[in-house]
Write a structure and sequence with these properties.
Oligomer: single chain
Distance between the termini: 41 Å
Strand order of the largest sheet: 3-2-1-4-5-6-10
Order of helices and strands: EHEHHEHEHHEHEEHEEHEEHEHH
Largest sheet: 7 strands, parallel
Strand content: 15-25%
CATH class: Alpha Beta
CATH architecture: 3-Layer(aba) Sandwich
Mean pLDDT: 96
Structural class: alpha/beta
Number of helices: 12
Radius of gyration: 19 Å
Low-confidence stretches: none
Shape: globular
CATH superfamily: NAD(P)-binding Rossmann-like Domain
Number of strands: 12
Number of domains: 1
């Protein structure tokens, strides 16, 4: 199977590419530039060499179509996107990249009649705890996005429904939460990774949102949910919330300090501003996916890998 991974040189894309290669699939990376900065943190040299790079822009529909035809693509994993800060700073371009780029993928699927597209939505489509009266957010609860990023992802979810109802385009959107792990360098929720990296490298770091309870979602689980979604039968639901480990920011800081007693981490007051407590029952029932990593195990794995990288970087 030939799988096109848009944004494949990013954090999540790198893990997905690795897992697809390990499963014996051929992987074509569709990205703006061939940047191996993140892949080198995760993949072996042989794995990087096994990837096929196709330069391209997700806002360029003809370019996407040419790539699919040239590489004989069977399925697509669509991860290319902007994150919250960039979207907030440039709403017109956010609409073009996040929404139009995703719709281009749906349109390409329609034209080539591809059997499956898995794409990254976000829990940013949902609102604050007050919007849900403090209750756990269900998969099909209303959207109250607080950021331009979430508003665009919500629009993409509506388009996914349209393309399924009108054209039979079989897509699965996965709403990810506070993803962390080696390679996570961008986005407001990348602070969880940055604090672990700082502890591994002996650097100081101020941890934001210290009053919040967030969903700690280890990147290995994120990749596993994507690869699993590529192969399941058609689901009755188009977009699923993927749940990690719902734990406080302070609990994460305390566990890092337990592993690295001299870690120089300062906790800053405040909350992220969205609800983090989600029900992932539909994903479990329809995709048969459940996460494997607790917050503790994910932090341990991330810290271990950062330490390995630190050793490799020593002169």
């Amino acid at each position: 199977m030939n799988v096109l991974v848009t944004g494949g040189f990013g954090c999540i894309g790198t893990y997905v590419a690795r897992d697809l290669l390990n499963a014996g699939e051929s992987v074509v990376i569709y990205d703006m530039v061939e940047d191996h900065s993140i892949p080198k943190m995760v993949l072996s040299d042989d794995q990087i060499a096994a990837l096929t790079f196709q330069p391209g822009d997700i806002t360029d529909l003809p370019g996407i179509l040419r790539a699919i035809k040239h590489h004989k693509i069977d399925k697509i994993v669509h991860l290319a996107s902007w994150q919250v800060p960039a979207c907030q700073a440039n709403p017109p371009m956010a609409l073009k990249i996040v929404s139009e780029g995703t719709i281009n993928i749906f349109e390409a699927q329609r034209i080539f009649e591809l059997p499956r597209v898995v794409w990254a939505s976000s829990v940013a489509v949902f609102g604050s705890p007050e919007d849900y009266e403090g209750k756990q957010v269900q998969n099909d609860d209303p959207h109250f996005p607080k950021f331009i990023y979430g508003a665009n992802k919500s629009l993409c979810e509506r388009y996914a429904l349209h393309y399924f109802d009108q054209y039979g385009c079989d897509t699965i959107g996965l709403r990810f939460t506070a993803v962390y792990g080696v390679g996570r360098t961008r986005g407001m929720s990348s602070f969880t990774t940055k604090m672990i990296e700082a502890a591994a490298y002996g650097e100081s770091y101020t941890v934001p949102f210290g009053d919040d309870i967030v969903d700690w979602q280890y990147v290995e689980d994120v990749s596993a949910s994507i690869v699993k979604s590529l192969g399941v039968p058609t689901t009755k639901t188009r977009s699923f919330t993927v749940k990690g480990d719902f734990r406080s920011v302070k609990a994460g800081v305390e566990y890092v300090k337990k592993l690295v007693p001299d870690a120089d981490l300062t906790v800053q007051d405040g909350v992220f501003g969205i609800q983090w407590d989600y029900d992932a029952t539909p994903l479990t029932e329809q995709v048969r996916f459940t996460p494997e990593y607790s917050m503790e195990r994910g932090i341990e794995r991330t810290l271990e890998r950062f330490r390995e990288i630190k050793q490799l970087l020593r002169p």
